[in-house]
């Protein structure tokens, strides 16, 4: 299917770009500078444009879900939320990682990161055709509640992706949508601690009849 083929390519460009971003010596660089490098790299790899404005949120800025990169300097050992996506042959990709450039981020960050990572795994495991989208959201949300971070998860677990970066189905607590075979959705739980840092991990996947296919790396 041409739609899936194009999204798979867009996801591959996003993955390669995220790898490029993680390899940079970003300590001392501003959020804006890293975001500009990311945008340029996506175009070099064949993207026609961004799917949305790239997010780079260092330290406390990572706790802002839709942070606009500014002149904040990236420091050693602090969490940095990077959310990027591109358009290839009219179709979008969307990917987030939370990374640390040098140094050690500390135990609190490690605890939150592992909680978010496991909540994403639980949500991904719930993905298949016929499942209520709200149940996928609940798989991630319930785990974060159990770990004491539920109040810090302030957005939906995911959304559909196609020619627009936000489409149906909505993977949210009140969603009436059901997952269908061929849907392309994100799974992106996050924890945001105001004044400290944020953690979000986002992957793109195709819904299959019995399971899923993760796009990108």
From TrEMBL:
It comes from Candidatus Nanohalococcus occultus. This is Xaa-Pro aminopeptidase. Belongs to the peptidase M24B family. Residues 6-209 form the Peptidase M24 domain. One of its GO terms (molecular function) is aminopeptidase activity. The lineage of its organism: Archaea, Candidatus Nanohalarchaeota, Candidatus Nanohalarchaeota incertae sedis, Candidatus Nanohalococcus. Pfam families: Peptidase_M24. Keywords: Aminopeptidase, Hydrolase, Metal-binding, Protease. Transmembrane segments: none annotated. The keyword Metal-binding applies. InterPro entries: Creatinase/aminopeptidase-like, Pept_M24, Peptidase_M24B, Peptidase_M24B_aminopep-P_CS. Residues 158-180 are annotated as: Disordered.
């Amino acid at each position: 299917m041409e739609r899936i083929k194009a999204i798979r390519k867009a996801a591959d460009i996003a993955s390669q770009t995220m790898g490029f971003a993680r390899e940079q010596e970003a300590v001392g660089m501003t959020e804006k500078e890293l975001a500009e490098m990311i945008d340029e790299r996506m175009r070099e790899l064949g993207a026609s444009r961004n799917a949305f404005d790239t997010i780079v949120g260092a330290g406390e800025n990572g706790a802002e879900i839709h942070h606009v990169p500014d002149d904040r300097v990236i420091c050693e050992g602090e969490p940095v939320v990077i959310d990027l996506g591109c358009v290839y042959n009219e179709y979008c990709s969307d990917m987030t990682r939370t990374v640390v450039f040098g140094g050690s981020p500390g135990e609190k960050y490690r605890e939150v990161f592992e909680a978010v990572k496991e909540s994403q795994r639980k949500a991904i495991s719930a993905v298949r055709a016929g499942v209520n989208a709200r149940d996928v959201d609940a798989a991630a949300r319930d785990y974060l509640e159990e770990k004491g971070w539920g109040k810090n998860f302030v957005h939906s677990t995911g959304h559909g992706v196609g020619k627009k970066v936000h489409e149906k189905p909505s993977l949210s607590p009140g969603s009436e949508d059901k997952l269908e075979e061929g849907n392309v959705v994100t799974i992106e739980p996050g924890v945001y601690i105001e004044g400290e840092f944020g953690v979000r991990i986002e992957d793109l996947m195709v819904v299959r009849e019995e399971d899923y296919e993760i796009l990108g790396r």
